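Exercise 7. Given the encoded structure of a 336-residue chain, write a plausible sequence.
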C-alpha cells in the first residue's frame, strides 16, 4: 500500500525548519576542527531517524564530535564504553529484587537516552550486540518479561577502530545493515591539524565553555524537520536512478547496469534503497531545497552502501575495497 504523496515544503518553511539544524552544525564546527563530512553525516542520520557507524583510527575527534552534538541538542546523552566483559544488563538494565516486599522492579540501563554513543562497539560479545540490535531496530528493549519503549528521538552513534583487531568481535551483518550510514573518519588536512595544535595543545583539560553547552536545537524541532524530510520531492527519474544504483551492487545477471558479479559476494538489500532515498532527501533539505538532485544521491551513496557491499575473494585479491566497488558503480550507472 503506497502512502499518500504530501506536498513539498515551500521555501519559507524549509528555511525555518533547516536553520536550527544548520545552527547545530555550526556549533559543532566551532569545537571540532575540520571533519565537516562527519558532522554533516551525523545530521543526516538524525534527520532520517537512522543510526550511524563512525569508523576511524583513535584521535580523530569522533567522541568529541558526538558529545558536542548532544550538547547542542536539548536531549539526554549517554556514553557506553563497550568491552569484552560487558553484559546485556549493563546496556539495557535489569530487574532488582526488593527484600522488603519480595518483588522485582526494573532498573533501566544507559540505553534509555535520546543519543547513545556506543564507543568501540565491536569490542562487545554477541549477547550484547543482540541486545543492542533490538534497541536499534525496534526502538525497544526487553527486561525480564516486559518490553519497554525507548525515548523519541533515539539515535545510536557507534564508533569502531579499523586497525586494531585484538579483543574485537566482528559485527554481525544483520546489525551492520541497521546502520543508516557508515562514515569513514579521515585525517585532517595540514591546515586543520595546525588549527588543532593551536587550540588543543595545553596541559589543562579541554572542555566546552558555557556558551557552547547551550542547546540550539530542541527535540520537537528535530521531529518537525524529520516530518518535512518525507515531503522533499524525488522525481521519478531520480527514483529509478536510486534503484539502479542499489541493484548494481548485487551479483545478479539481470542488472540493468551490467557488471562485475565476480567482485561482489553480497550486495545491498532493499533496506539500502530506502536509506539512500531518505538520506538524499535529508541532504537536499540541509542544502535548502525541496527536491532531490542526482548529485544529492551521489554525495551520500558511499556512506549508505559501503557497509552493505561485501567484496568477493577475487576483489580482495585485487586489493579492492567496498569503497572501490561503490565508486565503480557510481561511475558505471548513468545519472539522469
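Solution.
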Amino acid at each position: 500500500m503506497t502512502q499518500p504523496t504530501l506536498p513539498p515544503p515551500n521555501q519559507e518553511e524549509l528555511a525555518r525548519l533547516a536553520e536550527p539544524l544548520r545552527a547545530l552544525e555550526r556549533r559543532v564546527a566551532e569545537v571540532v576542527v575540520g571533519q565537516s563530512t562527519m558532522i554533516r553525516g551525523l545530521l543526516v542520520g538524525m534527520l532520517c531517524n537512522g543510526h550511524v557507524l563512525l569508523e576511524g583510527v583513535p584521535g580523530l575527534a569522533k567522541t568529541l564530535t558526538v558529545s558536542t552534538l548532544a550538547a547542542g541538542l536539548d536531549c539526554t546523552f549517554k556514553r557506553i564504553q563497550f568491552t569484552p566483559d560487558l553484559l546485556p544488563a549493563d546496556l539495557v538494565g535489569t530487574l532488582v529484587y526488593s527484600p522488603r516486599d519480595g518483588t522485582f522492579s526494573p532498573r533501566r540501563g544507559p540505553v534509555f537516552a535520546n543519543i547513545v554513543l556506543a564507543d568501540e562497539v565491536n569490542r562487545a560479545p554477541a549477547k550484547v550486540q543482540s541486545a543492542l540490535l533490538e534497541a536499534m531496530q525496534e526502538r525497544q528493549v526487553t527486561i525480564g518479561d516486559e518490553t519497554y519503549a525507548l525515548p523519541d528521538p533515539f539515535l545510536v552513534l557507534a564508533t569502531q577502530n579499523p586497525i586494531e583487531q585484538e579483543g574485537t568481535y566482528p559485527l554481525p551483518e544483520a546489525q551492520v545493515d541497521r546502520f543508516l550510514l557508515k562514515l569513514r573518519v579521515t585525517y585532517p588536512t595540514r591546515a586543520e591539524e595546525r588549527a588543532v595544535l593551536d587550540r588543543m595543545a595545553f596541559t589543562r583539560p579541554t572542555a566546552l565553555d558555557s556558551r557552547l553547552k547551550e542547546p540550539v536545537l530542541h527535540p520537537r524541532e528535530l521531529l518537525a524537520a524529520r516530518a518535512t524530510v518525507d515531503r522533499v520531492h524525488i522525481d521519478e527519474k531520480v527514483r529509478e536512478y536510486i534503484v539502479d544504483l542499489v541493484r548494481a551492487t548485487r551479483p545478479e545477471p539481470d542488472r540493468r547496469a551490467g557488471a562485475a558479479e565476480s567482485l561482489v559476494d553480497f550486495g545491498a538489500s532493499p533496506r539500502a534503497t530506502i536509506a539512500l532515498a531518505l538520506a538524499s532527501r535529508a541532504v537536499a533539505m540541509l542544502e535548502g531545497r525541496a527536491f532531490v538532485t542526482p548529485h544529492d544521491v551521489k554525495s551520500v551513496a558511499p556512506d549508505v552502501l559501503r557497509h552493505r557491499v561485501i567484496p568477493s575473494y577475487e576483489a580482495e585479491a585485487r586489493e579492492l575495497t567496498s569503497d572501490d566497488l561503490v565508486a565503480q558503480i557510481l561511475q558505471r550507472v548513468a545519472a539522469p
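Remark. Residues 253-260 have pLDDT under 50 and may be disordered. Students should compare their own answers with the one above.
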